[in-house]
């Protein structure tokens, strides 16, 4: 069985590297693997039941609702207002637009949950200003690419929600566990920007004079409702008033009301938001749908149990196993997006690592943080391609500027591993 599992996994990556979409590649590989392992009739039974059971989850309803909320807020132009407010408060500093992008990215992460969406939104809003003031393009585009990755860690993180659904770990605990690591990552990016502009002042000239206090306060008029919405959602979840599965629907409804009442979204914007939310949700659910077949194949082969037993008999240190898994995630992140990495690896690595005694909530933060690094790592850092396509800057220029930020990400990952309380302190207190 182990040989079949290895061969089918190799077949899966062959399909992926030849351009087949992740969902269909996992479905085809899962069907082939089940046929080889248990024969044709069990395959029919699995296809009839497993995909439906994989997506017919009350917890999973959180995901399309958060996506819909983000689309309503984007259609209402709240995302651009968040960056504009940050720019008015910090734009006068050397590298001020980059700092403003960090602040805007943190706020945007609290309504988006999608790294690529955050990177695209920030690029279209911030890059023209950075270019106008003479920022080095490798620095400006790299900053925008890495800031987008905050959305996969700061609640409501789609990566953490999917991890919770796949592993049956508390989504509420996972979302809360992402707050401190997300804040530490943002502070790390601020430090990286500060070091870059001190070493090379020409990379980020001063943007101009400080905005008047009245203009800065005025910029908060359209930001405070969103900040209040985010604070209310987190309070509702962790006070027990609303479950994580319900709060996405409440957030989407409030976002719709805000956009309509404030006159920021018409009928056309409403329809476009529904279309984008439906398309993105369908793509993610299709991956989950098909991944369930491949997950059952791995379970039937017993490869996870055999691997765990072999590690225990060989007396390999659990942290060495964790290091190897992280290395695997980083390598896969060079070629695949974070969702695909999680879907591909969780069926095997989650039971393996929890069997070695690691906390599942802490593992969720480690997994998501590691896949976040892959979003900006060459040759296939997805956020870098998104920023490149949005700004028209060659992707090699974007990659040239990301290395200081990748180093910061690796240091933060090391901190999370060395100090598990960074992820577990807030969920433990609640």
Please characterize this protein's 3D structure.
79% of the residues lie in helices and 0% in strands. The chain has 430 residues and is mainly alpha-helical. The protein has one domain. The chain is globular and about 70 Å long.
Jot down its keywords.
single chain; mainly alpha; globular
Briefly note the structural class of the backbone: mainly alpha
Q: If helices are DSSP runs of H or I spanning 4 or more residues, what is the number of helices?
A: 23
Percentage of residues in helical conformation: over 70%
Give the averaged pLDDT, no decimals.
Answer: 79
Distance between termini? 43 Å
Number of domains: 1
What fraction of residues sit in β-strands? under 5%
List the helices and strands and how they pair.
Elements: H1 2-17, H2 22-38, H3 40-55, H4 62-75, H5 78-90, H6 96-112, H7 115-132, H8 137-148, H9 158-167, H10 171-177, H11 179-199, H12 213-218, H13 224-239, H14 244-261, H15 267-301, H16 303-314, H17 318-333, H18 338-355, H19 360-374, H20 382-391, H21 395-401, H22 403-418, H23 421-429
Helix pairs in contact: 1-2, 2-3, 2-15, 3-15, 4-14, 4-15, 5-6, 5-7, 6-7, 6-8, 6-11, 7-8, 7-20, 8-20, 8-21, 9-18, 9-19, 10-23, 11-22, 13-14, 15-18, 16-18, 17-18, 17-19, 18-19, 19-22
